[in-house]
Amino acid sequence: MNISILPNQFLKDNGTFDRDEAIKLCGKIAGVCYDKEGFNHLKDEVLEKTMKRVNNTLNNGHHSVYDHIIINFNIENIPKILAMVINNEHEYTTSEKSARYTPIIRKDNSIITEREEQLYNKWLNIFKIKIKAKYGNIYNDFKIKTLAQENARYLVTVFMPTEMIYSTSLRQINYIASWMLEYIDNANLNDNFEYNLSKSMQEFINCLDRLNVLDDRLMTNEKHRSLSLFGKNLDKRQEYFGYVYTTNYYGTYSELAQGQRHRTLDYKIERLNEKEYFIPPIIADDKVLISEWLNDINSVKNVTPQGEIILINESGTYDNFILKCKERLCSAAQLEIMLQTKETLLKYKKVLEETNNPLELDIVKYSHGARCTFPDYQCPKDCGFKEGKTLTRKI
Questions:
Q1: What is the DSSP letter of 244?
Q2: Which of 86, 111, 87, 59 is nearest to 208 (CA)?
């Protein structure tokens, strides 16, 4: 893994972060709340006053001023699952390489095994044939290839390397590092998933340390917070649908990564003791292919393929769920998350009607098909795809 910092006012010539100067600026900002003359007066105050304020805020847990410093990280070769871990913490912006448009190519010393590469290429060709046979009149060869890649990657480990630009605050990146240390301390090293993830987290922390980003005073954890992605006893959570909602469903790591783009919603996961795997609907009518798919994906179960099923808990507000529908109920969205969003919408609608919730009059507007049927959404480009609009497509 390699992490570098994109150009900013605190980037030194050697590529490391000028943490001391960033902290000094935050110390001045901390005085704004009570200084009569405002920040312009604080800019030129004596260093002793600034540092006194720095020490007070760092040592008494008043760390919010350190959110004013945003750092833009260029992260290369980060495991996909680790990207998902940090993408579940909401104080961030990310731009990540898409698996839909990126073929899986095994390189020297790659974590991707030869078996995964073979299966990926095998099913890439199968999906191309199946998609072209059913939707060749809708999609051109390039689109068919990207959809085939999106489905073939279900066979590849969730630890596959990816690249991302990740922007967050000085405080938040230190908090995340502290939560990773807690995860490492409590990881079950006899579990391949936890062992490999804890190793990746330690490498991530080491990179941040080399960049001079971490500060022990910002890594305290008096509130005993932890990484938000991992939940416990999620199956015991009672579902609820009203002005706020919480729901459980089964999906893959790939679907979860899509869901995390909706940062107004909260996600938690639990891995299943008995492994199950997603079956792409494009092959669901072929018993021979289904059996072959399950045998193949089960043969790489030790690497935690992205098509492994996990228990997902999703929580949020009604308004933000509707915003999710305006993104995911579309022929261009990943199929798995489109199907799950549709299922949640219908469940939400049913409960609202059964409880005579006033929202039942609103949600009906969104239950007639894809987002292009919504009265308050204007599609910028008509796909002309009937099965896409009726949410019945197979790819």
A1: E
A2: 86
